Each structure stands twice: as structure tokens, then as C-alpha cells.
Amino acid sequence: MKRALILVEGQTEERFVKDVLSEHFRVLGLSLSPTLLTTKRTKTGDKFSGGVTSFGKFKNDARRMLGEAGSALVTTMLDYYRLPADFPGMDSRPRGKALDRALHVEHAIHQHFGSLQHFLPYLSLHEFEALLFSSPDELPRALTRPDITDKFSNLRAGFATPEEMNERPGHAPSERIKTMFPGYRKTLHGPTVSKRIGIERLRAECPHFHNWVSMLEQFARTP
After folding, report:
1. With the CA atoms of 78, 14, 73 and 133 taken in that order, what torsion angle do they form, in degrees rounded to the nearest 10?
2. What's the pLDDT score for residue 103?
3. What confidence score (pLDDT) does residue 171 get?
4. Contacts of 57 (CB under 8 A, 6+ apart)
5. Which residue numbers in the chain have pLDDT < 50?
6. Are 130 and 163 spatial neighbours (Cβ–Cβ below 8 Å)?
7. Strand 2-8 to strand 30-36: parallel, antiparallel, or no bridges (unpaired)?
8. Taking the model in full, what pTM does it have?
């Protein structure tokens, strides 16, 4: 069985890989192994995980994974929203669509590591919570707030895709969700709701996510 190592920034993404993505890829003969990004290491060797605080810390984890990968593919699942400014490509992003800016940064990260064939940087547009807007029903149902399903659906309808939701503070997908659903808990509801929506609906609604999954599928199917 082939392997793909996924460097994720938090427990939500870790659970998403284990509970949603892994099931899809298992039948293709691809095993997915998520690893939480290390944010801090102490002199005693203890480490703290979760969150992207700087490119330097990301680079250390990525290099370690690439060195240990062997024949495995190394990829990432990090939020583009609030990505630290010291990441490659952040200071030279093009104007225009958010997707073009994210692709620019992904390409710059890839180049920074020597454009390795077995390295596939992926940035979620604009963050994991965008996926939860792929269905107007599941999140209100999970939060026992069916009374605001229409409001949630109308918000989603204001964008061509959930991934195009504005990245400005206060307008990002997670912040909109927290405003509408004060009881939302990222690590609990995020993976649960995305699993209920299903990977095919997530792919249909979120083209950048779909392209990433497609590239993982291509790796799984390549001899």
C-alpha cells in the first residue's frame, strides 16, 4: 500500500484526515498519515503541536518528514487565512482572485524545497471551515439550529464557491460560523459535519480542495 504523509496545522484537520479522507483513499490503496505541525520544542525534548506560527517552524517539520518519507508523498493541509507573512511567496502575491494568490504561495513553497516531485503543498482556501458551507443543512442540524438554515444557506449563496468567502478579519468562514453558531466547537463539529456532508459534495463545492484530492488520487493510481 502506498503512503501519503500530511502535515496538518491542528487537531481538526488531523481528525478530518483520519475520519473522512482516509476512508476515501483506503480503497485506492493509499494510506494517509496526518502529523500535527510542531509549534515549539523545549530543551528537554518536549514539543507543543498545532497552529502555524512561522515558516521556520513549518520548514523544520517539513524537512524532517521529507527526510523520513522514503517512497511516500508528503503534502500539507494548512489554512491560507492568516498564514504567516514570512512564508515564501507571501510578499509577491498577485492581485486578483484568492485562488491565484494561494496557488502562487503553494508554488513558492514547493520551489523553496527544491520542487521535489514527492512534495505537494496544499493551502485550504481560506480555511478548513469553508468546507462546512458545502451543505446548507448539516451544520445547522449538528448545532440543533434548523431555524437558521435559510440564513446559513443565503450566506453561502453570496459566493460562487465556499472557498471564495472573504479572508478579511471578521469575514472568514470560521468567524462567520461562530457569529451564527456560538456553540460551534471546531475540533468537534468540524470533522463530524464534514463527514456527514461527504467527500463528493465537498469536492463538488470546493474546486481547490477537489484538485488537491485529485492529485492524491493520481499519486495513488500511478505505478
Report:
1. -60
2. 98
3. 87
4. 37, 38, 39, 40
5. 40-48
6. yes
7. parallel
8. 0.93
